[in-house]
Amino acid sequence: MKGFEDLFLKWRDGSLTDVELKELTTLLKQPDARRRLAEEFSFDYELGEAFRAEDARRQTQQQADSFKNLELEQTAESTLPAEHPGRRSVRFPGRHWRAALAWAACVLGLAIAGVLLMPKETVALLEQTAPGLSIKRGAGTVASPATGFRLRAGDEVLVPVNAFAVVAYEGEATRIRAGGGAHLVVEATDGGKQLTLTVGTLSANVAPQPKDEPMSITTPHSIATVLGTEFSLSVLSNASRLDVVEGSVRLERRDDEKAIVVPAGFYAMTGAGIELATRSLLPEPWSSQDIGLTGRSGHAKWEGKRCRVAGGDQRRGRDAFHFVYQTLDGDGEIRARVLDFESKDNRTKAGVLIRESLKSSAPAAFLRVNATKGLEFSKRQRREPSLIELVGVESFPYWVRLVRYGSTITAYKSADGVDWVQTGSENFELGPRIYVGLGVTSSEKSGENAAVFDNVSVIAHGTLPE
Amino acid sequence: MAIAKDQIKEVTAEFLANRHQLMAFIIGLLRDPQVADDIFQEVWLKLAAAMEKGIVIEHQAKWCRKAAKLLILQHWRDQRTARVFADSTLVEFLDFVDQAYDENESLHSLRPERQRALNECVRALPEKSKLLLALKYEHRRSLSDIAAQVRQSTDAVIKALLRLRHALSVCVEKRVRLQELGL
Known about the structure:
The complex is a heterodimer of chains A (466) and B (183). In chain A, strand 19 (299-303) and strand 20 form a beta hairpin. Chain A has helices at 4-13, 18-27, 31-79, 97-117, and strands at 122-128, 134-137, 140-143, 149-152, 156-158, 165-168, 175-178, 183-186, 194-205, 215-218, 222-226, 230-235, 239-246, 248-253, 259-263, 266-271, 279-280, 287-291, 299-303, 306-311, 321-329, 332-341, 349-355, 364-370, 374-380, 387-392, 398-405, 408-414, 420-427, 433-441, 449-460. The radius of gyration of chain A is 30 Å and the shape is globular. Mean pLDDT of chain A is 78; it is low at 70-97 and 111-120. In chain A, helix 1 (4-13) crosses helix 2. Chain A is an alpha+beta fold and 466 residues long. Chain B is mainly α and 183 residues long. Chain B is globular. At the A-B interface, helix 1, helix 2, helix 3 and strand 15 of A face helix 1, helix 2, helix 4, helix 5 and helix 6 of B.
């Protein structure tokens, strides 16, 4: 029988035979062997981590060195006299025809390789552009690139304020939406897709990536590594913030390489003096989920007193939207101000809701802003289609309010949040517990619509209906 | 059933405190960092789902290991291609590894100062030794591959690796002790 050390080394090597595995298992019946195994596992892991740290240190050093060399080269070039054009020509005397032939073949080969490799230089495409957007490539700048512009490794996308750009990767559904003022660098895709966000905000919908080639996004403070999920990343002046909508993302702090896994519905921040921890995107007692079959998942987050809700597309006229909600027992109301939409077409809607349940067919009242039409009051009774009534055409922001009193739900609108005007009323079959909250939906064309709300309040009147 | 914000914070903090130990367990069994990372994230998602359902978990580290164990078994079953182990032996082995962690929890808290010391010890190694260790622990190459690359016999590589591990272990203990003494 072999010793523990040999067997363990073979296990680690992946070269253990069935018989040897049995031998190792027999040895592990002894407490000492088990203790040793736990020690070896930990030490292996620590060694792996040590090499990861060493590798990161080496890379940082190499980067620093290359910057230093670049500076030296630039200094040297600036002091050299301009070359005479004639000195650059290559001459092949008659007796060196073989060398000339080889040189020509080499040039031809390089040219062919260049042509063949040219399309591969494209890393991603600019799927949506905006006026004022520019791409910095090397020393040059491409102003106002057209939709479909092919982005190469090293290209810098500069998004103007109050605009956004969408970067797409060919052959997959991955989309990166860079927000206003963002500076996004598209990096080479060796070992996985890579981006650098030096300033601004982006939201990402990442299709599943190969296991050994995760996508990574680097900010000045962190590295977010992801295999396929939906999240947003913002670079603030002294910190970076990662909000995870779906799946989970590994976030590494660049200062000390400390990393955490941020799951869906949570966010984490990196920066000087900020604890690296996961925090919930929605404060208690709010929850959020998609209602019905949305084409894409919605998400929501609270930023101070504002709530940003993004909803997927509404399909086939059924309820399909993102709902940020809380339960309310008995009579009560919800009021909010809809500040604005991020995309506007005739199916993007946002407003306040009261529902009997979270089922897509539940009786519900939805007082909402339709981006192109104005204020709508939508009502649906059990097993009946929705009835939609246009109740006002005003400009943003819209103040909206729904009040439940017994079996009646009344809708109100206001210009200032103080004086309320009744816009509709309907009787519903409702239980004592209802769901109140904010709803946002969008069209398939815009993909995702985000609306921003503030002054959101839920007031319980403290009386249970009979 | 929704749970309190403080409770989520507490559970998350405990998970983060034990994550190295959990990762060492998973990676030790799988030997593939990418797959290990996937399973680690799956465990976290399962824990988050349990939190959402209001399930009370008394011993989180143990619970996470059990969840990881099931996922690892599933992975092995999915991956059974060239190397086929008798299921019962593999399950028994897995149980023993789990037991090893149960019995030696205090021993393997994977403290940050220990990791720092190890990083320093690795940095101080001669380049040749560093390369050998990197091939094994960073690039996860097999012993025979390493032997071919460094032009030595597999036995010589095994001996060298064992010697280096021992030297590093001594170096870490020494540095940690010095740190504790404030030197």
